[in-house]
Write a structure and sequence with these properties.
Oligomer: single chain
Radius of gyration: 20 Å
CATH superfamily of the domain at 128-414: Kelch-type beta propeller
Number of helices: 0
CATH topology of the domain at 128-414: Neuraminidase
Strand content: 25-35%
Length: 420
């Protein structure tokens, strides 16, 4: 996957624009928070739709994006008369100075650099920062992560790369504001290779394996976390249990699709869980080719859930149809290591093989339905491309994962260029 608009660049400068992120309904494996704006009263980004990855702001409503793996696109950015001369003149949007070096307006009016970054050539620098390891859970692989109440929340997984790999019930919550970890209450059912989404008020996790070395050990069902404890949900009509599958928050429901069934098979089945019911609704795909291999990513785009394998589910009509992939879409299937800020989707991509500690960020923009320039900024040493990612506040956060030699203890947080 090295063609077309996916040409690697070293974070090039962006043009002057005005940020106007409108409030449209939107939505993981895994969370979305608000992009940080300096002007009080700027519109918060809209309701979280997910993946893998998932919370924000400490509120329990759904008026802000909570879950970084999908959402309806916002209205984009409008042309600006911003001053780029650096002479301190105020532009029509109330911004002063140059977007080239102003950390409060870096690359765009109101796009603020966070966590001590400075604005260099219209980019918040450094793009990647390491996160604390003190107090973190035991390093693991095949865990899930979401953004929830302003934190990166991760749970489940397995400790060892080979042999018996019992699922874990433990987890942790990382606060990016204080750069500290706290312990998460245990799941009722230990699991690995599961998926999770955040509605903003709750975290929902479904599926996985009780033992990651045994593809027949499918068993864990739906659990819900309200910020205090996990509760098992036994609503009738749940889909076939599965592992290594994508999930998304649509704004009102959890959507699950595909993945591996018992005995290493693949399944074209899907379902939506509506917590207001509560009820499950079938969303099986009848089209040829829907039974993908595991770990295929998907995202919510308006009224559609789009699967990177080339299919789309209409949430209103409850029907499947083919989807023509955008130009220069990678030919390989996307694993669930990605986060979504509501407009752009950020994939942790290995630059050497299927898994490595050499990471680049592939960026897909809903507004233009196109791939943007790949970000090759240097990630923290030891961060692996299989680390579950989630969008929290203004950053993608990822932690732990395994490339075959044992789980990494490394985590990192990434702030992208201002959206254009």
């Amino acid at each position: 996957m090295r063609e077309g608009r996916r040409t690697s660049v070293k974070r090039t400068a962006v043009v002057c624009v005005a940020v106007t992120l409108a409030g449209s309904a939107c939505s993981a494996i895994v969370g979305v928070g608000d992009i940080t704006f300096t002007d009080a009263g700027r519109d918060a980004m809209s309701a979280g739709r997910d993946s893998m990855t998932f919370g924000d702001g400490g509120t329990a409503d759904t008026e802000k994006m909570k879950d970084g793996h999908s959402s309806a696109a916002d209205t984009g950015l409008e042309a600006s008369t911003a001053d780029t001369s650096g002479d301190g003149a105020q532009d029509a949007n109330g911004c002063k100075g140059s977007f080239v070096s102003d950390s409060n307006n870096c690359g765009a009016c109101g796009y603020a650099c966070v966590n001590g970054r400075t604005c260099v050539s219209s980019l918040c620098t450094p793009a990647w920062q390491p996160i604390a390891t003190t107090g973190a859970p035991a390093a693991r692989s095949r865990h899930a992560a979401v953004g929830f109440s302003g934190n990166y929340v991760t749970f489940g997984g397995a400790l060892t790369p080979t042999g018996a790999r019992a699922g874990l019930a433990t987890g942790g919550s990382y606060d990016p504001t204080s750069d500290t970890w706290s312990t998460l209450p245990d799941l009722n059912q230990a699991r690995c290779a599961h998926s999770a989404v955040s509605s903003g008020a709750s975290i929902y996790t479904f599926g996985g394996l009780s033992d990651c070395s045994n593809g027949f050990d499918v068993g864990p069902g739906l659990e819900v976390f309200d910020g205090t404890a996990w509760t098992a949900n036994t609503t009738p009509g749940a889909p076939v249990l599965r592992y290594d599958f994508p999930a998304a928050w649509t704004g009102t429901q959890m959507f699950v699709f595909g993945g591996g069934g018992s005995g290493f098979s693949t399944t074209p089945t899907g379902a939506l869980f509506n917590p207001a019911g509560p009820e499950w609704t079938e969303a099986d795909c009848p089209l040829t080719g829907c039974a993908f291999s595991t770990n295929l990513a998907l995202f919510v785009d308006g009224n559609f859930v789009r699967v990177w394998g080339g299919f789309a589910y209409d949430l209103t009509q409850q029907t499947w149809s083919p989807w023509t992939l955008p130009a220069n879409t990678p030919t390989s299937e996307f694993a669930q290591t990605y986060a979504d800020d509501g407009r752009r989707i950020f994939f942790l991509n290995s630059t050497t093989g299927s898994c490595s500690q050499s990471i680049e960020i592939l960026i897909y923009d809903r507004n233009s339905s196109s791939w943007l320039a790949t970000d090759t900024s240097t990630a923290p040493a030891g961060l692996v491309s299989t680390a579950p990612a989630a969008w929290v506040g203004s950053e993608l956060i990822a932690w732990s994962g395994d490339c075959g030699s044992g789980p990494s203890t490394t985590g990192g947080r990434y702030q992208p260029p201002a959206p254009l």
